[in-house]
Specification:
This protein is of the alpha/beta class and about 260 residues long. It is built from 11 helices and 7 strands.
Length: about 260
């Protein structure tokens, strides 16, 4: 529906730091509708992770019969500048907060599970210092457990039990709307500069090697143990310096275990 805009309201400039990430997209029309939704709310950064071949082919047609472009409606520039990458870690490497979306119950989440409004408040605290990624999964199956594990915050959108799943573009629109509203009346920004996702993943790689190497867990239970450490450390809102400190501790511990005390 077309209607009056919010021209008199100037959302904070950190909306440019919001990135919408669509994983394994299957329907070109959803890409176009999502592009229109994010443009509605002042966001322009769209990334696709390993989209299905039919999505790639549709986007290559651009405005010559592309379903995505047909649905974008005045947001064609979003599609013109979107980036396609082959893995979720690559899409969120520079993010200081990764927000995963899910409708599924899991045994353990790596971050707090919140509703859209609480999510938007946290995003508004972090986005002034750098990129925040809002990650949406496949139309049919959502995000895998390994993909959701990259999130420091997990969003579940309350819905009726009779129809619990949302269309992908609808979910994108709803969360972007909440972020936009938070930008109009933002909370105090986070005080500490948070580490980027790439640095956190390097820490968790070190931690995985360390806890397996010392026999803290076995290979079968290793993913669960790492997930618990992720949950614990995500609560700490680690800074870049703290990540480096922890990695140094792990490296020195491994060296000492192999070689003994330094002379």
């Amino acid at each position: 529906m077309d209607g009056g805009g919010c021209d008199s309201l100037e959302p904070m400039s950190w909306l440019k730091n919001i990135r919408v990430v669509l994983v394994g997209s299957q329907e070109p029309m959803n890409i176009g509708a999502a592009a229109r939704a994010i443009q509605n709310f002042g966001i322009s950064d769209l990334r696709l992770v390993a989209p299905e071949p039919r999505v790639r082919q549709d986007l290559e047609r651009r405005q010559d019969g592309s379903l995505a472009y047909r649905l974008a409606v005045h947001a064609e520039e979003i599609l013109d500048h979107l980036k396609v990458v082959e893995s979720l870690p690559a899409a969120v490497a520079d993010a200081r907060l990764v927000v995963g979306t899910t409708v599924r119950e899991r045994e353990m989440y790596t971050g707090a599970v919140v509703g859209p409004k609480d999510m938007a408040q946290r995003v508004a605290q972090v986005a002034p210092q750098g990129k925040v990624a809002l990650v949406f999964g496949r139309e049919a199956s959502g995000l895998t457990t390994d993909e959701i594990d990259l999130s420091q915050l997990i969003v579940r959108i309350p819905t009726s039990p009779k129809q619990s799943s949302l269309n992908l573009a609808q979910a994108v629109l709803l969360l972007c709307y909440e972020v936009f509203n938070a930008a109009l009346d933002p909370p105090e920004p986070a005080r500490a500069q948070l580490a980027e996702q790439e640095a956190l993943e390097q820490l968790f790689d070190d931690l995985r090697e360390y806890i397996f190497g010392i026999g803290f867990t076995d290979e079968k239970r290793l993913p669960y143990a790492v997930r618990r450490f992720r949950r614990l450390l995500h609560k700490a809102d680690l800074t870049p310096g703290e990540v480096q400190f922890l990695r140094g501790f792990l490296h020195q511990s491994r060296w000492h275990a192999r070689h003994g005390k330094r002379p």
